[in-house]
Design a protein that fits this description.
about 300 residues; mainly alpha; two-stranded antiparallel sheet; about 45% helix; globular; disordered N terminus
Length: about 300
């Protein structure tokens, strides 16, 4: 999957829109140049502009589009412009078949761990406090665009910065990864200029908590009990019932899961020897956080009761 291309700046977007609205051939050509410069800026390869604009102008389909632009109706122009923009992105990626360490991959999320990354955890390069677990059946953001979906397979991921979603090991100021020499398999394979580069990961087994904690029966038992009492599938089913008109039992079940999850985490940090920063690895994201994916937030009143409040 390709990295997310930054949107044009407001100034550029406004100017491109005005140029396209004019319907003139010269304005169309100028809009194309501005759009290509914006794409290249997002990929940190602005110096490729002259080469790529020349290649574009030599393509027959583009020559035909430029020559007929003034006589196309607005609907056709809109359709052809979208096709052209996709093409600009394609040729921009193709112009840089190498890693610039620009950080774009790290700015929009963090990697999941695979079996090949086991030693990173065993050797302490990655610790539980650096990780969190997405449990099977959870509702979560599945890509850089923030699209929500159901997690089909348990995934252990490196944490992200809460303020912007960036990988915790990436320094935007220095454009460096703190563990670059020991980066996970996904980071090694990811090549934003090659959308097929990550496809091979689809056939590689992901790390799971049970694999990493094999032999630690006490923790595995706690995880098993928590997964049963705070089932992501059951939580999703309850929210689905509420969305369809709901009933009191579904709401009660959500609050019951929420109370158990919150209480367990409190007990384990106060008396069980767990650190707060480790809990999201051992037990997945808190139910309070997961509830946000359903457009709700949790309020706790002074009497200790929990209430769900719609964010819409």
């Amino acid at each position: 999957m390709k990295q997310k291309i930054s949107n044009p700046t407001n100034n550029n977007l406004t100017e491109i829109t005005k140029l396209l609205d004019s319907g003139g051939k010269k304005d169309f050509v100028r809009a194309v140049e501005l759009a290509l410069r914006q794409v290249l800026l997002s990929l940190h390869v602005e110096e490729h502009f002259k080469q790529l604009i020349q290649l574009l102008r030599e393509e027959h389909w583009y020559q035909n589009l430029e020559g007929t632009w003034e006589i196309l109706n607005p609907q056709v122009r809109t359709r052809e412009w979208k096709i052209l923009m996709n093409h600009l992105v394609e040729i921009a990626y193709a112009s840089r078949p190498y890693c610039l360490r620009c950080g774009e991959c790290c700015l929009h999320g963090s990697p999941s761990l695979h079996l090949e990354d086991t030693d990173l955890v065993i050797q302490g390069i990655l610790s539980p406090q650096d990780l969190y677990t997405l449990r099977k059946g959870e509702r979560a953001k599945l890509n850089a665009e923030g699209k929500l979906g159901m997690v089909q397979q348990e995934a252990i991921k490196i944490r992200e910065k809460p303020e912007n979603g960036q990988c915790i090991f990436y320094s935007e100021q220095d454009r460096e990864c703190a563990i670059y020499q020991h980066r996970p398999l996904q980071c090694k394979l990811q090549a934003c200029w090659d959308p097929e580069s990550l496809n091979m990961l689809l056939h590689m087994e992901k790390l799971s908590r049970r694999y990493l904690l094999e032999g630690d029966e006490a923790k595995l038992k706690l995880i098993h009990v928590h997964d049963e009492r705070c089932s992501p599938e059951e939580l999703d089913n309850a929210f689905s019932i509420i969305d369809q008109g709901g009933d009191e039992a579904a709401l009660d079940r959500i609050l019951e899961i929420l109370r158990y999850d919150t209480a367990l985490r409190a007990v384990l940090t106060e008396k069980g020897g767990f650190r707060v920063e480790e809990l999201d690895f051992f037990f997945g994201r808190s139910i309070q956080e997961i509830v946000g994916a359903y457009g709700m937030r949790v309020d706790r009143h002074e009497d200790g009761t929990y209430h769900l409040v719609s964010l819409v």
